[in-house]
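Lab notes, practical 5.
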Amino acid sequence: MSNSVRLPWPPKELSPNFHGKRREHMRAKKAYRTTCWAEALAAKLRAPDSEKIALKVEFFPPNRRSRDDDNLVSSFKHGRDGIALALRIDDKRFRTVPTFHDEVVPGGEIIVTLEPL
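Output from the prediction step:
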């Protein structure tokens, strides 16, 4: 059992600034939600017993390109949904606490930690 999981960086199609085809966005949305669901299950992620849960999300970018913090949180929305699905809980219990790191990780990664509130 664990209270944290490492997840891949969200695909560019999930950015609020993406202006490609809707079909590409829908495929990326489903694939990323499924990936995060599977990673949460593999990590044996467990939800705290509290009513509200701090969803601490640490963003480690794939490169030094400048990014808006609100776009990163928005891009991760479907990953958050995948985690909630794996935990079999309603994601309205989550209170997102984002942290944005300058440290570059090849390919990028997100570390999610669950804590009671």
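Observations recorded by the TA: The longest helix spans residues 22-42. The chain is about 35% helix and 25% strand.
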